[in-house]
TrEMBL record:
Name used for this protein in its record: AB hydrolase-1 domain-containing protein
InterPro entries xrefs: AB_hydrolase_1 (IPR000073), AB_hydrolase_fold (IPR029058), AB_hydrolase_sf (IPR050266)
Coiled coil feature spans: none
A Pfam family reported for this protein in Swiss-Prot or TrEMBL: Abhydrolase_1
Cellular component, GO annotation: membrane
Keywords, in A-Z order: Hydrolase
All copies of domain AB hydrolase-1, residue ranges: 37-306
Database matches in PANTHER family: AB HYDROLASE SUPERFAMILY PROTEIN YCLE (PTHR43798:SF31), MONOACYLGLYCEROL LIPASE (PTHR43798)
Species for this entry: Neoarthrinium moseri
GO molecular function, one term: hydrolase activity
Amino acid sequence: MEYSYTEANDGCPLAFQTSVPLGPATSATPPGAGGALILLIHGFSGSSEYFQRNTAALAGSGAWVVAVDLRGHGQSGRPAGGYHVARLAADLRDLLAHLRTFLSPDAAVVPVGCSIGAAILWTYVELFGDADFGGMVFVDQAPLQDRSPFAGGWDASRAHRGCFDEASMLAAQRAWTETPEAAYAGLVADCLGYRYAPAAGDDVSEARRRADEAFFTAISRKCDPVWLARLLADHTRYDHREACESIRVPVLMMAGKRTGCFPLEGMKETTERVLKGRRDRGEGEEAAVARWMEFESGHWLFWEEPERFNMEILGFVKECVSAGRK
């Protein structure tokens, strides 16, 4: 993987890692031979470095693999504004326009949105539709973070475990801005399954625990904590349930059984809403895949169970490529 860059429509530099070196644009031959572009989108305070256990295996299939740095994260630009999920969705559209100059028109683009990356994809669908994609993967994120009395109620059994209303959001903002080092460590404690919900069979050495925490906190430390706090306030209020209902392409929802972020019931709402939308449109559940998948790890399941994650992603992408050729 090597870094490459493009710009958003407001001039913000957008960095991404690519498995194929990019030279002069050509639409005649797509990078790789797999007929697919796998687009990895990290979560809150992360970067493309999150996927260092995944990119080689995914690229080994022949697919082109791109891992993004969202604005405000990693090596991308850090403007004063832009701390909105909709702005990040617009950035994704600009990035896709750039990548398509290297990609054949019939190649399947399959984004993998992890945490807030999933919210970015749902917002993208709401703003621009899903025609740009051959399928979509959502990783450990519910379509609504806050508790809400609407649509039958959205309570503690579905909402985010720690940031779910005005008071808890303000507390999280204070933590990220006033005691950022503790916030970074708290994120690790919530997102690694062996930390959030230790199990008798865990074989995790103290050296690995320290290395994992150092890795993730170093990535969070690269971000402006005030900017992140503002992004958090925007992210937690979005309700993506109706956007999920409009998705027509194949969907794979991955969730960690030991995540410290969302109850499984909240995340299951994603596939349920996708299927509801298809029924409401008279398409039937057989119209396309809407699959639910549980992992034994936590929020960062791509890090804790990389072999299975990579295998499942490749299998799903293969299905999307085959479906697109029919």
